[in-house]
Please model this.
Amino acid sequence: GGGGGLCLRAGGDCQVAGRKVEMMLVAAGSYERFLWGWRMDQDAGRLTPIFSYPAHLGAIKSIAMSGSVMATGGSDDMVKIYDLNSQRDMGTLLAHKGSVSCLAFYAAPSSCETLEHPKNLLSGSDDGTVCIWKAGSWVLFKTMKGHKRGVNDISIHPSGRLALSVGRDLHLNMYNLLKGRCTFTTKLQSEGSLIKISPLTGDCYSVASQEVVTVHDSEDGRSLHTFLHSKRVLCLAQGESPQQGRMLFTGAEDFKVTAWDTVSGKLAFSIPKAHLNRIRGVAVLGSGGAFGSDDGTYFVASASSDGTIRIWDSRMVKDTTLSDDSSPIPLMEAETQARLTCLAGSSFEGGLAATCSRVHNPLVTEAGMLLQQYA
Model:
């Protein structure tokens, strides 16, 4: 039939449905409102497509993943929730009156290396508000005001108690997530487009403004390091394992993916000409457990306006001296022919069915939203 439901199909040598397998997934949104997803097949050395889905009524502006749960935000003011393990579109969250510009999950610390279900989701919008959603029930806990103009980005402290945001009103805000309100705001010298709290320790946070990224101490806000780029920075990512936790990855309009050491303040390595166009998303995969290794190997994913997704092996990049004219060879690559806008990645234990599956019954979230999936 003519469907709009999420259809997950694992190609190649995917494991049988129901069997627990170790997965590394990357997903990207596009201007053309399509959501794309791939599974990293390390044995075959390729990205296996698992879904391509018109997820929103307009451009997809933001994406976040935590374990097997994924969220997307669109120019249609909606947040969509997906459970990648059960192959379900879980419903639509409606609270914003503007494009959903940023999303961030919080997963409580766990002894489990591959936690599959987050505790909360934060969504920021062009309407200036930040919403706190309870994961699982997807009930709206609080709508927090603070920015007089749109929210550009938001990041959650690893304690889960506070979050920071930057907005088009040139302010940086701090929120108390337990009380659900903005508790502090300060005006920046220039508009912050991106913000990232160190996910491992929370002892520092990074703010991107045009071509400059500054690292600040979380206690007093003083500037620790400044990372200069030749062109505007469009995305930030940071790993969650001890090996990656100090590394801040940036993607910019200069077609480069760069790794910065937030402890020493030095350039760790860069991938010049990582793509043929601007970098719109970066993600770090392989945070330890099944995907890490004793030598600290991990993967960096990048997405570009040129429509490609590329996976880079940290060892190959770090061990190679790359000039600005060189074009390194990615470990894996996928082509969408779409104008990609955002990227997320996740590692978790799960299984994807070997055949295409659709849910035919309406799904009603506890928040009262109805989503009809149809064939």
